[in-house]
Amino acid sequence: MANVGYDDTPQLPNQEWLVHDGSRPEPRVVTPGTDAGAPSDAVVLFDGTDLSKWKGRDGAAAWKVEDGYMEATRSGDIETVEQFGDCQLHLEFRSPEVVKGDSQGRGNSGVFLMGLYEIQVLDSYDNPTYADGGAGSIYGQHPTLVNASRKPGEWQTYDIIFIAPRFDGDTLVSPACLTVLHNGVLAQHAQASDGPTGHRSVSSYSSDHPAAGPLKLQDHGDLVRFRNIWMRPLPASDHT
Ligand code: MG
Asked: How far is the CA of 122 from the centre of ligand 1 (A)?
C-alpha cells in the first residue's frame, strides 16, 4: 500500500505515533446499521422475534413478545445470558399509552448495566417525581441533565456508553462511568457512578465487584415495552 502519511513529522504527546503517521494502523471497519439497527460488530440481544438471549426468574424469560417488541408481564426482571463489561448499548422503550398512576408508579422499568447500574426507565412526560428517579437518571444518584421524554405511547431511545469500574486489588482505581443519550439528547455526560444503584440507600463500591455482568431489564409491574436492543462490547482500545 502506498504510504498515505508522513515519517518526518513531530511525535504526538503521550502516543507512540508521529503526527499523520503513515505506519499507524487504520481503524477497524464496522458497517453501520440503518434506522438505528445493529452495526456489523454488535451483539443483537433482541430483534423483535424471541427472547432466546434472555433468562428470567425461573429460567426462560417470560415477557410477552408481540409485533416486534417485548413487554414486561409482572413475571420478574429479565437479564441476558451473556455477560458484558465496557459497552455501547442501544435500545428503544415505550411507556403505556394509557396513563395510569403517577411519579414512580407510571411506566417504571429500568436498564441495568452489568445487572447493577440502573438507568431509570419511567414515563417522565409531565410526571414529576424525585429528580434522581426520572427517566435518564442514574437511579438514586444523578438526575438526567434535561428531561427529553416523549409522550406516553411513543417509542423512545437510549444510547448508552458504559465503562465498568476498575480495581487494583481491593482499591477502586476508577468508578463506573456512564454517558446516556435519551432520544438523541445528552442525559448523562461521562458521569461517574457512586456504585451499584439502590433504593433509599447510598451506593458504594466493594472490591468483590464482578468484571462483567448481564444486561438486566426491570419488571416494575408496568406494561413497558422494549425493542431493537443491541450491544457493542468495547475493547479497551476503543475508548482509551
Ligand atoms: Mg426502575
From this structure: 7
Question: Counting Cβ atoms within 10 Å, is residue 61 exposed (0-12), middle (13-18) or buried (19+)?
Answer: buried
Which pTM value belongs to this model? 0.95
Q: Is 16 in the same domain as 64?
A: no
Give residue 236's pLDDT. 76
- Ligand 1: centre distance to CA 216 (Å): 11
CA of 158 to the centre of ligand 1 (A): 14
Distance CA 229, CA 192 (A): 24
Q: Which residues constitute the domain of residue 16?
A: 1-30
How far does the centroid of ligand 1 lie from the alpha carbon of residue 219, in Å? 8
On whether both 50 and 24 belong to a single domain, the answer is: no
Closest CA to 179 of 125, 95, 113: 113
* CA 31 to centroid of ligand 1, rounded, Å: 33
Give the Å distance between the CA of 173 and the centre of ligand 1. 28
Please tell me the distance between residue 83's alpha carbon and the centre of ligand 1 in angstroms.
21
Using CB atoms within 10 Å of the CB of residue 212, give its burial: 0 to 12 exposed, 13 to 18 middle, 19+ buried: middle
CA of 222 to the centre of ligand 1 (A): 10
C-alpha pair distances (Å), 79 with each of 59, 116, 144, 178: 10, 11, 24, 19
Using 50 as the pLDDT threshold, list the residues of the chain that sit under it.
none
Give a yes or no: residue 37 inside a domain: no
Within this chain, do residues 16 and 47 fall inside the same structural domain, yes or no? no
What is the count of structural domains for the chain? 2
